[in-house]
Design brief:
This protein is an alpha+beta fold. Helix content is 67%, strand content 11%. α1 packs parallel to α5, α3 (153-181) runs antiparallel to α5 and α4 packs parallel to α5.
Length: 315
């Protein structure tokens, strides 16, 4: 009875420790990775909205509005809507034509700085990130506001993936631990303590830590399972960081493309301006010639009139 009671206590203790530690790891990793992905998404769209505002300001100075470019930006992944709003709250441009001309009441209208906040998307009631950035048209006037609605579906998908991966590892480790618990002896207390400490370190986020046990039994295998889990989660973390880097490179490349497009538009405008000036000069030259001819005709008529009068006088 004593052995049976001790076995039950060890089995229950190990199972409880594994559940608690694995839960801590899952919660910690879920929170950290979700936050990282959300921050990367926000940074990407901060750069995107700044680029869009710069394009609008440049286009305004050149005398045209970049509808096509803004449409391409609004069609980007994770973008729910893109609005350009006057200081009065009237929507001047929107990716959805039905929104153009409508008025919104927002406390961040005409703010001079970038604003990021949580919001609810009216269509579906989903939680989104709302980014507001000023668009300066004229010095001394209140800036217009560029509203960018960013979907968090990518964050939710990554969160589900992390939960699934973590639960799979947790379930595998739990089953393996339950199997090992049937063969516990008094000599397992020390390696079990080392195992617990190692798992706790990993649970705090140190995924490079490895549990080193040489017991030659299932406890060593369990330690290796935790090491493999930490390695897999570390690789997942590295993959997410790599994806973030690739995403930043893509944003930079897209920004470069947009900048080159604006420069091409500027060249076209300059060429057209040059052609218009040339045509105006030709018209002015023609006008001078026409006026000169008209004056000569008037003088000729006056001379003819004088000659007629002189002829009449001689008769």
């Amino acid at each position: 009875m004593l052995k049976r009671g001790l076995f039950n206590k060890f089995f229950g203790l190990i199972t409880l420790v594994m559940i608690i530690v694995s839960t801590i790891i899952i919660i910690f990793l879920l929170k950290e990775q979700t936050q990282r992905i959300e921050e990367a998404l926000v940074q990407e769209n901060k750069l995107l909205i700044k680029t869009a505002a710069s394009i609008i300001e440049t286009a305004y100075r050149e005398g045209f509005f970049p509808f096509k470019i803004l449409k391409e930006i609004s069609d980007s992944e994770n973008i729910l809507f893109l609005w350009l709003v006057k200081p009065t709250g009237e929507i001047y441009f929107a990716d959805d034509p039905e929104m153009i001309g409508k008025k919104i009441d927002d406390p961040f209208l005409s703010r001079e700085e970038l604003m990021i906040r949580d919001s609810i998307y009216p269509q579906g009631g989903k939680k989104i990130k709302l980014i507001t950035y000023p668009v300066k048209r004229e010095i001394g006037e209140k800036p217009w506001s560029l509203f960018l609605g960013v979907s968090l579906d990518q964050v939710a998908a990554a969160k589900r993936k992390i939960i699934f991966t973590s639960l799979s590892f947790f379930l595998g480790v739990l089953i393996f631990g339950a199997f090992v618990s049937f063969y516990l002896t008094k000599g397992i207390i020390r390696p079990l303590e080392e195992l617990r400490k190692g798992v706790e370190i990993i649970g705090k986020g140190n995924l490079d830590y490895r549990i080193k046990l040489k017991t030659g039994d299932e406890i060593e295998e369990l330690a290796e399972s935790f090491n493999q889990m930490a390695k897999s989660l570390g690789e997942s973390h590295a993959a997410l960081e790599e994806a973030k880097t690739v995403l930043e490179i893509k944003v930079q490349a897209r920004t470069k493309e947009l900048r080159e497009l604006v420069e091409q538009r500027e060249e076209i405008i300059k060429e057209r301006t040059k052609e218009l000036r040339k045509k105006i000069e030709e018209l002015e030259k023609f006008q001078r010639l026409a006026v000169g001819r008209e004056l000569k005709m008037i003088e000729l008529k006056e001379e003819i009139k004088k000659l007629k009068e002189e002829l009449k006088g001689r008769k």
